[in-house]
Design a protein that fits this description.
Three copies of one chain form a homotrimer.
Chain A (H helix, E strand, L loop, with lengths): L1 E10 L5 E4 L1 H11 L4 E7 L4 E6 L3 H14 L18 H10 L2 E7 L2 E2 L6 E6 L5 E10 L1
Antiparallel strand pairs in A: 1-8, 2-7, 3-5, 3-8, 4-7, 5-6
Chain lengths: ~140, ~140, ~140
């Protein structure tokens, strides 16, 4: 069995944002030498997500507006977590809707994807350096 | 290490629907010859889900009504994604709530399930052929 | 390839609650002898979740209130599932938001975690014994 580990670091300049990290994950799969296996990609922070969906800016605007409706940032005092001095409680909620991680099959040395699947980092409390973990196992 | 890959194809005749795919996944586990390992089952399309819950028609009606409340299909013009000519933005949102994939343990050659766990394909933009990927690794 | 399987049993004394199970999962990783691999932790019941987030009681109160808003327990007659004699339909919905499972990388014999990641069991229909499955594969 082979295994491979890589961290990706980002600093999203705004509170929230979506970043396509598919090329970085593809590069990790190639570097791993794994032909058949599983690739885990997870946010290492608990106000961020890794998810798979479409590279389409209108859809990302829809996600932003929808998540803000489901778990509004304001008023920040509505959340008990923010009594700790944080203002990111909504980010902990949004991250649960969008998910922490994806597991992607690797077949014939490549991400085994459907036609429109792309991997995104979703930031809900940005403006600081944060990490994603890629872990690959297989043969 | 053994690995096994199989695609399942479906055409759900309505926009939305849930399909129990547990027998197909069990058959894949048996065909794989894997006794101990992990089984990934994921939608290969981004307006569909794979999830684990109960085979109970009342619950499925509850999911349908609940998801429609969280992310309504109508009016379609409320979503920017639909300006691209699509009418499926709500499907991209619903899929995030229900999830893209499940990872199930394989033990003693079988899906290692609790008493009521069943695997479902959740369709949110049907009436065309779409795929699920099963990827198994183990020994 | 090594594999390891362990069940954790709980009885949460109230309908809903969150329990930090990180120490039990860490112990399983150590017992497995796996240095590099993947660790699946999943609820074996369909009105419960396993998720990763922060060990902070204010945040847990926020999750409780937020989930109750997204999928209220009362009135129980609003859900068709409850016509079967159950009163836990809301638990099946809440579990989809919080997720069934997490997959965590194992590196150098330990859970490969970011600074604040902790694993929780989320109960949405408690007051009876229920199980979590830990399945580890790797080398």
């Amino acid at each position: 069995m082979r295994s491979y580990r890589k961290e990706l670091w980002f600093e999203i300049p705004s509170r929230r944002g979506f970043l396509n990290i598919t090329p970085e994950v593809e590069a990790a799969v190639e570097a791993s030498g794994v032909r058949d296996g599983l690739c885990l990609v997870n946010a290492m922070h608990i106000t961020a997500s890794v998810f798979i969906n479409d590279e389409e800016s209108g859809l990302h605007a829809d996600y932003e507006r929808w998540l803000e409706k489901l778990a509004p940032h304001e008023p920040t005092w509505q959340y008990r977590h923010n009594l700790t001095g944080e203002d990111n409680a909504d980010g902990h909620l949004k991250r649960q809707v969008m998910g922490r991680e994806v597991v992607v099959a690797i077949s014939e040395g490549r991400l085994d994807f459907g036609p429109w699947e792309q991997i995104f980092y979703g930031e809900f409390d940005g403006r600081r350096r944060k990490r994603v973990l890629i872990k690959i196992i297989g043969e």
